[in-house]
Amino acid sequence: MANRPVQKETSSQPHFLQFNNLACETAGGKVIFATDEWFAPARNLLKRDPPEFIASAFTDYGKWMDGWETRRKRIPGHDWCIIQLGVPGIINGLDVDTSFFTGNYAPFTSVQAACLDQMPSFTLEGDRTGMAASPSQFEAVAQLNTDSWEELVPMIKLNPGYSESCHNYLNVTYPHRVTHIRLNIYPDGGIARLKVYGIGMKDWSTVSSQDLVDIVALVNGGVCVGYSNAHFGHPRNIIGLGRADNMGDGWETARRLDRPKVLKVDEKGILQVPGCEWAVLRLGHPGIISKIEVDTNHFKGNFPDSCKIEACGLTPDEENNLIRNQWCSDKTPKWRILLSPQKLKAHHRHLFSGESVMQCGPVTHVRLVIAPDGGVSRLRLWGRPVSNNLTHPQQFSKL
């Protein structure tokens, strides 16, 4: 069995890769229609784990592939599928990943989008390998008028699934909320994964200013906008749904090389180390935070020794400038302590409220700082959404 290593970050990679994957199966994304799924079902597109290749694996229908692969088309038309996003929102970019599809990849693709007031009731269940859409399914999906959906990406050529060419990154400039996308392939073939990077969009008019809401959650529009290190797991994972499934579903850094050879602690038992790691998150809505959860679930031999959380209010222009400078700028944010340094435990849900949470007033961004390094599976920030003079969530530009 061959597993493709996680691609290391380079300066040439698009910025949108640190945003949330709104279509991932762990976020609730699902395929609700596909014209053909002969060699491999379309639901594989939304898997969280990287594609794999097993040379000896075959099914009754042909070579087993970890992706969506249609049969060699012998009738008019082209293949396509419809994906319902797990988190509706603004799409910033796509990764059409053709990993391991080398002589059988889809040569061209295009992507369309829609915002549907009511979610379609039909869906695809079970293993659909060797199947194709039935006449009744075509009739049902025709009611969605997908041919006339807005074009996110015009027809473009795809690269084959070799390690150096498999990631087809597509920038998107569509400024409207999306609930569903139509992925077209021309005329047939295979794609391993489709990642839809963007920011969730919640209707905050339905939320009372007295309600406590997790205002950094993926589903509420929270997003990671900067970090120091993500060697084993990206910090966007910490605002995901539910508790983490495993260590891979969290933020984990490499071990810092400036760790003292002999470790010492202060009177509170917190390690005295020179370095730390950090992640900056933009809240889904400006708010006043009163309750915090830091969960180290699954991190048993690699949890951080301690953490602290800082908060500030930024305008869109200030945020954009800091992102361009990788959060290192002469005009650094006026971070205020939201949670003072706290000793952490392994595989434990840490809850902080009352006097532990400092009064910072309305804020738009938080910075989670861990020392010296390690992994956090989830961060929850419960607070009251408020209006302020700095910004409205939808004013932030898409970089």
From TrEMBL:
Gene Ontology molecular function: allantoicase activity
InterPro entries on file: Allantoicase, Allantoicase_dom, Galactose-bd-like_sf
Top-level taxon of origin: Eukaryota
Record-annotated Allantoicase domain positions: 28-198, 221-385
One Pfam assignment: Allantoicase
GO BP term, example: allantoin catabolic process
Signal peptide: none
SUPFAM superfamilies with a match to the protein in the record: Galactose-binding domain-like (SSF49785)
Similarity remark: Belongs to the allantoicase family.
UniProt-recorded name of the protein: Allantoate amidinohydrolase
Organism of this sequence: Sinocyclocheilus grahami (Dianchi golden-line fish)
